[in-house]
Amino acid sequence: SITEETVELLEPYLDMEDYNLETARKVCGNVAGLCSWTQAMVYFYGINKEVLPLKANLALQEGRLAAAQMELNSAQNQLDEKQAELDEVQAMYDAAVKEKQALLDDAEACRRKMNNASALIEGLGEEKLRWTASNKNFQNQIINLVGNVLLATGFLSYSGPFNQEYRNLLLQLWKKEMDNSKIPYSKNLNLTAMLVDNATVGEWNLQGLPNDDLSIQNGIIVTKASRYPLLIDPQGQGKIWIKNKEKNNGLQVTAMNHKFFRSHI
Q: Which keywords appear in this protein's UniProt record, sorted alphabetically (predicted)?
């Protein structure tokens, strides 16, 4: 209830030199406390005069803070709602991106399959040409089979005693006779390839048979002809080859001067 007017009325007294606690105690101890209290109330009024606007401002700012807090809460709620919507849209976006990637992968797989299919079709087209040529070749082989077999049997039956040059001459003479008799045969016939395969020739070479054409032909005659072959073998290569070839088949070797062989002569 202290007012500014009351403080103004007290100021002349407060400015007096003897208006203090010590002097009041000397005059009357009971009023000394009242003197000190009036000074304190004036000081309180001065302080409170500055504090009251601050309190009012504090109340105002607290009101503003409460309003701002309400707005913040409302904004936070909206933010939470928007965040939930964003999360939902983000999930949809991620699913769409995943589906897009899956479609791209499928498209790439289909593209690879199409390329492979195109390559296969092109390859089959080339194979068709090759099969057509092979079929034509097979037909020619069937037509020429009789003449080829005739040449092969003649080679096995009659060319054994002769060298390479005379064997070739025999084949040329036989082909001339077959042309005159209109017997079809393959013009590029290779009797060695017809009568033995490369794997067998390789095995013969490992067993000691030389790799030249004459030796391979001799090996064919030895293994394919129905007659027992007589080998004229000054270097012993044929003997080594036959021993290695037949060692697992119980081959027995004798000589003209063996005692058991002579006893039967």
A: Coiled coil
